[in-house]
Amino acid sequence: MAEKKKISLGGIDGAAEEKGSLVKTIWQLVKFLVVSGLVTIIQLVLANVLPLIFDSVTATLPVFLQGIFKPDVIFDASTAKGAEQMAKYVVGGVVTWGYLLPFFLSNLIANIYGFYQNKKTTFKSDAPWYNFAIYIVLMIALILFSTWFQGWLVGVIAKAPWAWLNSLARTIAGLAAGFIQMVVLFPMEKFVLLKEKKKEEE
């Protein structure tokens, strides 16, 4: 009997590249989605664990962040969940670091892993070190937006009459924010930050 051929990631990469740039991009998107799935798992675990550490932090956000994270926008005090969150995360009318840090750190840590994994396996890039610095700046902007978005979405979900849905609010908000980031990051990494290594001409 003939031996079965082993399928390797490198072999699939080569086959996709031979079929043209469109197939290659689709294959890169598939790998990017797999990495994004791992990033999402890491982020969700951290987003649900880190509040155990940071919920007790009552230091309030600096002025430049107070305009983004307004209590009346991200928390709905008319719901039991919203009132509970306001009591926990708002001091003197200002949102605390205890609210922001779990979202921010879980997002940042997970996406740093995603950056290096995509650099190594998805795009096989030899991008310079300063592209990572650019990535961090981009991620901070995305994280600030998605953190605000997650808080807003948790408030919307809190209005639902189903207790089981309310208990999943953080997870649902995290998944939605992760999707937004994925849509932004794939083209940025492929075409700007993690361009593929240039092949040496023989």
Helix content: over 70%
Structural class: mainly alpha
Number of helices: 10
Strand content: under 5%
Strand order of the largest sheet: 1-2
How do the SSEs run, as a string of H and E? HHHHHHEEHHHH
Give the distance, in angstroms, between the N- and C-terminal Cα atoms: 38 Å
How would you summarize what this structure contains?
This protein is mainly alpha-helical and 202 residues long. It contains 10 helices and 2 strands.
Report on the architecture of this protein.
With 202 residues, this protein is mainly alpha-helical. Helices cover 72% and strands 2% of the residues. The chain has 10 helices and 2 strands. A hairpin with a 2-residue loop joins strand 1 and strand 2. Helix 7 packs across helix 8. The protein is elongated. It starts with 8 loop residues before the first helix and ends in a 9-residue tail after the last helix.
Record keyword descriptors for this entry.
single chain; 202 residues; mainly alpha; 10 helices; elongated; disordered N terminus
Which SSEs are present, and which pair or pack?
Blueprint lengths: L8 H10 L2 H29 L1 H4 L8 H4 L4 H4 L5 H10 E2 L2 E2 L1 H26 L7 H29 L4 H5 L1 H25 L9
